[in-house]
Design the sequence.
């Protein structure tokens, strides 16, 4: 028995040594990402089908890659959203991550300064068929004729609806669908009816500590009115009567107490799940989370719906959109590191359906057209977003900074800190000063 035990221990030592050597032979690459931290729930999950939500799915995807790759180890670095100040600081210090997640709206800021690697040749060698990219995805990652990122999704602005509260308010039709407003008058009438019947605000909105709600909603209302506010990509124009009307609409919603107030993103996400309002204006990424919530006992039980942003204005069904992507930072990489980076990007491309389970739209035509994707919950209700999602023109520089400024000024008018005219003038002036100095 002692001889057998000794032999077994010796075998374990050899096996452990071999495993360590194998791990040492792999190339390690750093990957910076946001999407939150959820190691307690998904830290060891490699079956991506068992994961839900943005954080869960990206964590499981990286786990799966590390478990399967014979050449590469991905070291994830979790950053706070959106993470660009941190990324810029790391670039300046000469220690950027190998790969970083990046909104498509931001790519041109980095690519125009020579901070990103073009990936056309790498994708061709790796077997990534760029012709399978959706038009929105390919346009989003292409700058000056070159592809600078692996697209990951297209995400847009929509309405999450508590159908249980809509029924209580008498806003459900005979087919069991939510009755949605078709103009501003119907919007206010339905919102007042909802408030009277349920005692709760019609809208749940993220109005505190970030600007995304203001910019994305305001842009959508401008798109609906066919306002080309960036006809000239070097300057913005918010002086139209349509812009004034859209901002006045948001101000009136706030003044009439038809929305929650003073909630940050986390509070508003929880507020909708807790049944504290009827409509949560937010993005595609929460569809899976709320669909899972609707299968539990609670305020959303068997009562969750999602719809493309209703046309409050009759001009166009277009809606704000952007996309997440993965970029390769320019730095001194070995051939092995670059190959490992492309290997990981190709893995994400191959597993794009799994990421699309979050609610984001996939970036591959072959997936959007597949029965598997169409069979996911609520995808038929938002199919139009694949066509109507609209980003700022790619020639517009400093898009993320523009969105911050625009959101600050729209928010100041919605909350009543500034008049509508003053906020629009200030937004236009600040953005055009930024663009005048953009290089």
Sequence:
């Amino acid at each position: 028995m002692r001889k057998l035990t000794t032999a077994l221990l010796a075998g374990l030592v050899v096996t452990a040594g071999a495993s360590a050597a194998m791990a040492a032979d792999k190339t390690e690459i750093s990957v910076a990402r946001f999407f939150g931290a959820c190691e307690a729930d998904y830290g060891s999950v490699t079956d991506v089908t068992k994961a839900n939500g943005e954080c869960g799915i990206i964590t499981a995807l990286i786990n799966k890659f590390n478990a399967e790759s014979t050449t590469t180890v991905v070291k994830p670095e979790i950053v706070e959203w959106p993470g660009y100040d941190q990324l810029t600081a790391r670039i300046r210090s000469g220690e950027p991550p190998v790969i970083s997640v990046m909104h498509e709206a931001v790519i041109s800021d980095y690519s125009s300064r020579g901070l990103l690697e073009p990936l056309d040749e790498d994708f061709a060698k790796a077997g990534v068929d760029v012709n399978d990219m959706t038009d929105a995805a390919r346009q989003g990652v292409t700058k000056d004729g070159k592809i600078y990122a692996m697209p990951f999704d297209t995400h847009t602005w929509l309405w999450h609806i508590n159908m249980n509260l809509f029924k209580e308010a008498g806003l459900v039709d005979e087919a069991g669908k939510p009755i949605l407003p078709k103009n501003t008058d119907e919007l206010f009438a339905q919102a007042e009816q909802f408030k009277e019947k349920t005692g709760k605000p019609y809208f749940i909105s993220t109005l505190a500590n970030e600007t995304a709600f203001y910019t994305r909603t305001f842009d959508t209302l401008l798109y609906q009115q066919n306002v080309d506010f960036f006809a000239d990509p070097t300057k913005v124009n918010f002086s139209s009567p349509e812009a004034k009307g859209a901002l006045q609409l948001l101000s009136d919603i706030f003044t009439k107490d038809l929305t929650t107030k003073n909630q940050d993103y986390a509070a508003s996400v929880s507020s909708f799940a807790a049944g504290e309002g009827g409509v949560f204006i937010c993005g595609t990424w929460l569809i899976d989370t709320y669909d899972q919530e609707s299968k539990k006992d609670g305020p959303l039980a068997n009562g969750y719906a999602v719809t493309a942003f209703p046309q409050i204005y009759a001009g166009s069904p277009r809606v704000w959109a952007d996309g997440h992507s993965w970029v390769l930072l320019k730095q001194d990489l070995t051939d092995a590191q670059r190959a490992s980076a492309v290997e990981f990007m190709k893995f994400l491309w191959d597993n794009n359906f799994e990421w699309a389970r979050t609610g984001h739209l996939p970036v591959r035509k072959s997936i959007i057209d597949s029965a598997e994707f169409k069979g996911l919950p609520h995808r038929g209700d938002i199919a139009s977003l694949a066509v109507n999602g609209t980003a700022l023109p790619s020639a517009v520089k400093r898009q993320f900074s523009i969105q911050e400024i625009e959101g600050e000024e729209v928010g100041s008018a919605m909350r009543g800190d500034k008049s509508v005219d003053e906020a629009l003038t200030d937004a236009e002036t600040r953005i055009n000063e930024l663009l005048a100095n953009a290089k």
In short: The chain is about 45% helix and 15% strand. The domain at 2-155+322-386 is CATH 3.40.190.10 (D-Maltodextrin-Binding Protein; domain 2).
